[in-house]
Design a protein that fits this description.
With 104 residues, the chain is mainly alpha-helical. The chain has one domain: MazG-like (Helix Hairpins). 80% of the residues lie in helices and 0% in strands. Helix 1 (2-14) packs across helix 4 and helix 3 (32-52) runs antiparallel to helix 4. The longest helix has 21 residues, at 32-52.
């Protein structure tokens, strides 16, 4: 988890940097719709890699998904701790039961 915590800090530190020198700043400058679209693209690429790519491609795409998710969460001021707390809350609950509780 240290890696994701460090990544969250790095993203926060680069959010307001010069967009000419920081990809995180570029994404933030372009706005949440662009960040969300980029996350979606990376998620699709991860699915494609899972189905037809190599293990290395899947690892790389999974890292891209995590990175872009963290950028989007930061832009929306949602902390990693909040997401982890939600996962902790769900721990021990059947995925089926949890999903059904959201649709009720």
């Amino acid at each position: 988890m240290d890696t994701l915590t460090r990544l969250e800090t790095t993203i926060a530190n680069r959010r307001d940097a010069d967009p000419d020198t920081s990809y995180v700043a570029q994404l933030n400058h372009r706005g949440v719709p662009v960040m969300a679209r980029k996350l979606g693209e990376e998620a699709v690429e991860t699915c494609v890699a899972a189905l037809s790519g190599s293990r290395e491609e899947l690892v790389g795409e999974a890292a891209d998904v995590l990175f872009h998710l963290m950028v989007l969460l930061g832009a929306k001021e949602v902390s990693l701790a909040e997401v982890l707390a939600e996962l902790d809350r769900r721990e021990g609950t059947s995925g089926i039961d949890e999903k059904n509780s959201r649709s009720a």
